[in-house]
Amino acid sequence: MRILFTCSSGGHLEELLQLKKIIKENESYLLTEANQLKKETFNRIFTVKQINRKEKFFFLHFIELIFYSFFVYKKIKPDVIISTGALVTVPISIIAKLFHKKVIYIESFARIYKPSLTGKIMYKFADVFIVQWKELLKYFPRAKYFGGIF
Prior knowledge:
CATH topology: Rossmann fold
Distance between the termini: 23 Å
Number of strands: 7
Strand order of the largest sheet: 3-2-1-4-5-6-7
Helix content: 25-40%
Number of domains: 1
Number of helices: 5
Low-confidence stretches: none
Order of helices and strands: EHHEEHEHEHEE
Mean pLDDT: 92
Shape: globular
Radius of gyration: 14 Å
CATH class: Alpha Beta
């Protein structure tokens, strides 16, 4: 199966890397923010610069992210998108849904009592939405709870 993993750098990437078995057993690609990750983990890594929704030119950078996400999607043509979140996740996931592909979203382990903004957005269209804390089921009643991925 061809899987495109997507997440921001830092903690989101650390969580995603806990899915080593799935990554190794499939044709796996990664879309993330620029980082020091070695390419041996994935067939190919696509990087974008980090953007913050509070920065002055956020809208322009987000538009650029949308176009780059479309380029990555067309190049890989994944069967499924798996994400642990933040901003880089949203455009590629929406593009995948437009092409009738499955999207799996895992809400951040750091979110125990309140959902993230990305989680609120992704909950609306993810095929499978996973929370790592039972407390979040009150915000995401259709979510699956399996405990932490660490």
